[in-house]
């Protein structure tokens, strides 16, 4: 679609509808981590078993992401989103009725299965509607809902203290089920467009997983994007997983204060950053086809020294300011990942491509958090983890620089 073409009808309505779905997606997945004591009082388990609840979710979520993306390319994206929301909301409600550890573990694995289908389908649907200079901002606006949902995860612990651990799962499960029926009547894809140039007329209807993977991996730009997203996962998960511990130990903050400082400042700056990075990339893309790549390059070039400063300063206010700067600049990459993918991937395989990126990012992120624990056990100063994170983030900027659009404007 040319840059000056009008947006399809309902383009911003779709973003608004998905904003709340994204909020529920992350709220439902993270709130279990905030109610550890309440759950253990009712369902006895070791600390390792409690950690396994999140590990099981991540393993299933990562493993299913490429296939989940393929489903969104093969079938109606809006129906995949609605089905995913209904299923994970039902599983969230079902979690509240678990009586044994084994039942709780099973619901977490099923949550990973159902939630994996959402993000690739949602971002691809937004890209279908926003094909001109609104794509990055629309993506960033949707991701702000995801970040709000993540930040609201603490509501689960608050409700668990007052009403028992199952209450929040009951409540938000029913909210999600009800909302799935609301968007059933409101969410749909844009009107059909002509097939990509050079593609046979029936090609769009015959999306095959093997063909999608072949199409993606035969492109140097996609391999660079995959390496970029993996390295970004290393840096991002290192900061997310270990910054609270770093603030606790290096600045003698209490556990609660350190946790709120690490997540609060970063999450707030991320929410602002996805909007700024999206709007900036859209505006610049009117005159530069590489804008959606260059904006994240600039952001990561700022984020790397910011996280390095946070890891070595002896002044708490400087560390917190550096964290804000890191979150603000790093978010430019999040807002522009799907728009960048749209410039290098066949339009038929966007969701599959994002699913592959999601798989790799989650996998290396999980390994990174575990590796940080091994370094801790070996008595390595935790600041080394953030120095390595800064190095990987700088490497991300270099990788992005070498990506060249092959399908601009689609």
Describe this structure in words.
This protein is mainly α and 410 residues long. Helix content is 77%, strand content 0%. It is built from 16 helices and no strands. It has helices at 11-30, 36-42, 47-74, 77-95, 101-115, 118-129, 135-151, 154-163, 165-184, 209-217, 220-250, 255-285, 291-312, 316-342, 350-377, 383-401. The N and C termini lie close together (6 Å).
CATH class of the largest domain: Mainly Alpha
| Rg, alpha carbons | 21 Å
Q: How many domains in all?
A: 2
How does CATH name the architecture of the largest domain? Up-down Bundle
Estimated share of beta-strand residues? under 5%
Name of the CATH homologous superfamily of the largest domain:
MFS general substrate transporter like domains
Largest sheet: none
Q: How far from one another are the termini?
A: 6 Å
Low-confidence stretches: 194-204
Q: Average the pLDDT over all residues and give the rounded result.
A: 86
Q: How many strand elements?
A: 0
Tell me, what's the shape? globular
Structural class: mainly alpha
Share in helix? over 70%
| Helix count from the secondary structure assignment | 16
What is the chain-wise order of helices and strands? HHHHHHHHHHHHHHHH
CATH topology of the largest domain: Growth Hormone, Chain: A
